Amino acid sequence: MNEEKFALSILVANESGVLTRVSGLFGRRGYNIDSLSVGETEDPALSRITVVSRGDKPTQDQIIKQLQKLVDVKSVTLLDWNNTVFRELMLVKVNAEMATRAQIHQIAEVFRAKVVDLSTSAMTLEITGENPKLDAFVSNLVPYGILELCRTGMTALSRHANTNKTYESEEELKWQ
Amino acid sequence: MQLTGAQILIQVLIEQGADTVFGYPGGSVLTIYDELYKARNEIFHCTTCHEQGAAHAADGYARVSGKPGVVIATSGPGATNLVTGIANAYLDSVPMVAITGNVSRALIGRDSFQEVDITGITMPITKHNYMVKDVSKLADIIRAAFHLAISGRPGPVSIDIPKDIQTAVTEFVPGVKIEKSNGLDASEASLARALKLISQSERPCIYAGGGVVISDAAEELLSFAEILDCPIGVSMMGLTAVPHDNPRFLGMTGMHGRYAAGKVLSMSDLIIAVGTRFSDRATGNKQAYQLGHKVLHIDIDAAEIGKNIVADEHLAGDVKHVLRQLMTLGVKRRPSDWFTQVQKVQAMPDNHLQMPKDTLNPQTAIEAVNVRLSPGDVIATDVGQHQLWTAQYYRFRRPRTLVTSGGLGTMGYGMGAAIGACMARDKKRTVLFTSDGSFHMNLNEMATAVSCGLPLTVVVLNNNALGMVRQWQTLFYAGRYSHTSLDRRTDFAALADAFGAKGFYADDLNNLNLALDEALRLDTPTLINVCIGCDEKVLPMIPAGGTIDDIILKG
Predict the structure, then answer these.
(1) What is the Cα–Cα distance from B257 to B247, expressed in whole angstroms?
(2) What is the mean pLDDT of the segment spanning B47-60?
């Protein structure tokens, strides 16, 4: 089994229950979800779901084809790591006493993170980037004591003028 | 014209040609049933004893007629009782529209009386499902449901209609009957690759599944086999795709398949799989199944290609259309004496297992029915040994004459399915093969058959045991018959009489023949309790995950 990480960009109808249909399909067929993010697109009728998963080539193929069978799924794109902009947003609340505050600031500067909240003993930082950058940022903050952390999951768009609609669902499901 | 939601439902059902529906009334569908009452001259509603029976009836109706089966149930328990029937239709790709009522929108999400999230429950077992939240969208949702149910790979679609939507009024614009769309079309490049693959083969074997029956491609399949001068093995769902008296017919493949079907597939250099999903029951050991030959996979559902078996080439499209395309393009294989080799295998004694001809046993019982029915008569089955014996011994001659639960393996499927099948053919002769185990599950529907006055003959192969599980316990669990020896005293013949049907009892071949002669003459429901031994086995058998070399031929 040549398991590899892959990312899918899924355009779906912006209707209630769609996320359940997509995540339920992953669950019942035994596919992993490493991360998932979802939000409305420029067209309010459509949402984009970005899923990062793992599996060999036949599994990837199955996931794409099974997703394409869902009526609410408009298109599924297997993202090309080399030709896609990937981003994730993270908020980290870290211990920041007077003595360590400057050091944390310095780390934040290196990683181009922003301070978005500050109290007498803690600091909240916002950072965006690709996964390895976020992971590196976290490991730098661990020694100070991370109080809380949350990540949005990866979201992505292909580079240049490509529109991520290349794997259009082959079946025309509208009754007209 | 201004109509209520319930009126719109009836109008669209009529518009879509649903002249027969199955169901069970209840609190959340009262308004719909009020409209069904008014439309009773346009739509015949068959009231079953249990919603499960109604769902299976809609399923049986769809398999025989090719039209989507429609089932209606109330909210809560009515809806959950449909679940097995919907799952059964999903696994066997049966077009079905399941309509449920629900509590009013204002009560949804409050655990109201008889409220259940049936949309959530049926999500994994429907092609798609709808909860109607706006009456102005109702008509188009129902039309979309019909279209989805029959298009591409068919399947069930459910629509949940809250009670206040049924009474809400909106403008209704009449529509027309929707035709199915086949969706995928095999590309020219893939057709060329498939032709090349076939042209390099000298020992091709067709393996046909339910997709051939669904797409009405039986004729094309036979012509295709003639051109390639090759044999055809079938899955259980594909049993009626080929007339069983045709010399190209090898029989069913797989766990309880015929010796020649398994053997010839293993000898072939190319398997041409048509309208099938390579179920584990049909392939056995998947690695071994792939050895020694290439695979060309033709199916309308692109997701089936490469799911269970790796295909060397594939054609994603409607099988009838694809077979025609291949023939138009001049499909041919390398010349060889392949079919002579096939006939030698077919003539081998291992391919002709017989039970004794002069005693009452599963084979002679099925044969007694076989000789009395016409080629177009429909056979329904329940699930278990009797189902496999029917698959092995009954000689099907026309497509859509077998109604059986293949994928889900639903015991209790038969009674409802037989009722639906019988109605699909305008109440023509239908025979259900069942067993004491399966029949006990949903025998209540005998009452439905009586109410509807159906010429349905129920043949109970009664071994007073759960025979299929018992067979596994004999073979693989050292004869520890855990909970499969049934100490039941049900007198099925008397029970049939009590339902208002006519019951018969047969404990030898002679009284079975007499009972069948009389039962099949009557235009009303009949039942024959046929006594068979509890140690009769379904043979041959290839144990789960095995190959043709592991075949068990003798008990």
Answers:
(1) 17
(2) 98
Nearest-angstrom CA–CA distance, A36 and B218: 45
| Four-residue CA torsion sign, B400, B401, B406, B409 | positive
Q: Is B147 on the interface with A (CB under 8 A)?
A: yes
> Are B232 and B132 part of one and the same domain?
no
Count of domains observed in chain B: 3
> Minimal CA–CA distance to B47: which of B529, B330, B385, B444?
B444
Q: Which of B456, B487, B484 is nearest to B468 (CA)?
A: B484
Which residues, including other chains, have CB under 8 Å from residue B523's CB and lie 6 or more apart? B453, B455
Rounded to an integer, what distance in angstroms lies between the CA atom of residue B405 and that of residue B391?
12
Structure tokens at B363: 């084979």
Q: Is the pLDDT of residue B241 over 70?
A: yes
Show residues of chain B in contact with A172, CB under 8 Å.
Answer: 181, 183
Q: Kindly give, in sequence order, each residue whose CB lies less than 8 Å from that of residue B269, ignoring residues fewer than 6 positions away.
A: B201, B202, B203, B204, B292, B293, B294
Mean pLDDT, consecutive 10-residue stretches, chain A (176 aa), reads 89 94 95 94 96 94 96 95 94 96 96 96 96 96 97 90 50 30
Q: Are residues B502 and B368 in the same domain?
A: yes
Interface test with B, best of A173, A174, A176 (most B CBs within 10 A): A173
Structure letter (DSSP) for residue B289:
H
B36 and B131 both lie in a single domain: yes
* DSSP state letters, A33-101: -SEEEEEE-SSTTEEEEEEEEEE-HHHHHHHHHHHHHSTTEEEEEEPPGGGEEEEEEEEEEEE--HHHH
CATH class of segment(s) A85-155: alpha beta
Mutate to test the interface with A, among B90, B97, B128 (most CBs of A within 10 A): B128
Is residue B176 in some structural domain? no
Give the SS3 label for residue B547: coil
| pLDDT at residue A176 in the model | 25
Contact B312, B298 (CB under 8 A): no
Cα-Cα-Cα-Cα torsion B415, B417, B420, B426, nearest 10 degrees, comes to -80
Cβ distance B380 to B417 under 8 Å? yes
Please name the residue of chain A whose CA is at the shortest distance from the CA of residue B180.
A175
**Shortest Cα distance, chain B CAs vs residue A22, angstroms:** 10
Q: Which tokens go with A167?
A: 């794997």
Q: ipTM of this model?
A: 0.91
**Residue of B307, B319, B215 lying closest to B272 (CA atoms):** B319
Phi and psi at B532, nearest 5°, equal -130, 165
DSSP code for B49? S
- Sequence letter at residue B296: L
- Taking the C-alpha atoms of residue B149 and residue B318, their distance in angstroms, rounded to an integer, is 15
- Cβ atoms of residues B204 and B42 within 8 Å: no
CATH class of this structure's domain A4-79? alpha beta
What DSSP letter does each residue of B79-99 carry, written as one string?
HHTTHHHHHHHHHTT--EEEE
Q: Are residues B197 and B133 in the same domain?
A: no
Quote the pTM value.
0.95
Q: How many CB atoms lie within 10 A of CB B9?
A: 27
Give the residue among B51, B168, B157, B158 at the shortest CA–CA distance from B105.
B168
Tens digits of residue pLDDT in B170-218 = 999 999 999 998 767 899 999 999 999 999 999 999 999 999 999 999 9
